[in-house]
Structure formats: structure tokens, C-alpha cells
Amino acid sequence: MAQHPVFGADGDPDRTSATPPSPPGDGGADDLSGALREVLTLTQLARTTLAERLGMPLTNVEAVEHVVMASSAGAPIGPAELARRLGVTSAAGTQSVNRLVAEGHLSRTSHPSDGRRQVLDATPSGLGHVMGELAPLLALLHRAADGLGERERAGAIHYLANVAAAYRAYLDGDQDDATS
Fold it and tell me: Is the pLDDT of residue 17 over 50?
């Protein structure tokens, strides 16, 4: 089993320690920020590991993730929007979509109201392939909330909602509006 470093108290991934960071509430003003940085770093490492286990490039895993999330939200996306979300050219996005369709991970259909456009969806086999590897992590993450009281859950939800708002504000270029 691979060992992953525990980051230093300041969240610096280059400074590892033998003990986990102090639990929140030990008085450090940066406890939450440090814990969040560690989670974000480990999330990226987990995504890379997921891609390796699936035998897929990370960009393709991210593509499937974007398609699934958009479809789940009731707003399916097409190849051009997928390319934008991946930060690649439309030609590179089309190439990824073609590869994922050929491999059976995605399907491409006509947009329900605009037949000139296409929408993407994960195929049952593509979704099964990804979820087969992702399900154990999702189960571990679900168990991470075990034992939290209602006030702790409410505090965690409030903090994560503020973090999400900060990311949205940054993406929109409006850093002054992050937690208002």
C-alpha cells in the first residue's frame, strides 16, 4: 500500500511531518486553511491515481466527470462546452470526445431543442467503469462525516459553502464578493 505524506502544519506539501496536523480548534488561525489545502492537494493526488487505475489520461477522466456532473444537474453539455471546461482548444476537445466515444465511455446525441448542436452523456459502461474505481473513495468520504453532531455538520456545511462561493467569485473575477 502506498504511503502518502502528511503535510506540515502550514500545509506546505514540501514539508512533511510524521504526525498529522493539529486538529481544528487548537488555536491556530490557519487551521481551517491548512486543512483545506491538504484536502485539495490530496484530492488532486486521488484524481491522478484514479486516472492511473482506470488506464485513462487525467484529461479524459476530467471530461467524463464534467459530462456526468452537467447531466446530473439537468444541463447536459456538448463538445465545445466540454473543451472550454477542460481548458483546451475545441479541436483538442473534439479529439478527446471522439476517443471517449470510440472507447465506449461517452455517447453523443443531438441536442433536444437545437438539432444543430450535440450533447454528451456517459454510457452505462463508461459510468460503471469510472464508478467501479471511484465507489470505494466515495464510501470513505461518506464515512468521514460519521460521528459529527448536527452543529458540527452545520458548521462544516457553512464553511464549505463559503469555500465554494470563494471559488465561484475567483472564477468570475470578483474576489470582493467571495463570502458576502
Answer: no
Over residues 8-15, mean pLDDT: 47
Dump the DSSP string for 31-55. HHHHHHHHHHHHHHHHHHHHHHHHT
Residue pLDDT, tens place only, 93-141:
999 999 999 999 999 998 878 778 899 999 999 999 999 999 999 999 9
* C-alpha to C-alpha distance for 164 and 131, rounded to whole angstroms: 24
Strands 106-110 and 16-17, by their bridges, are: unpaired
Cell 471530461 found at:
63
- Model pTM score: 0.71
Helix, coil or strand: residue 133: helix
* Residue partners of 66: CB distance under 8 A and separation at least 6: 77, 82, 85, 86
Distance CA 120, CA 130 (A): 16
> Do residues 166 and 177 lie in contact, with contact meaning Cβ atoms separated by under 8 Å?
no
> What pairs with residue 17 in β-bridges?
6
Do 39 and 137 meet the contact criterion of CB atoms below 8 Å apart?
no
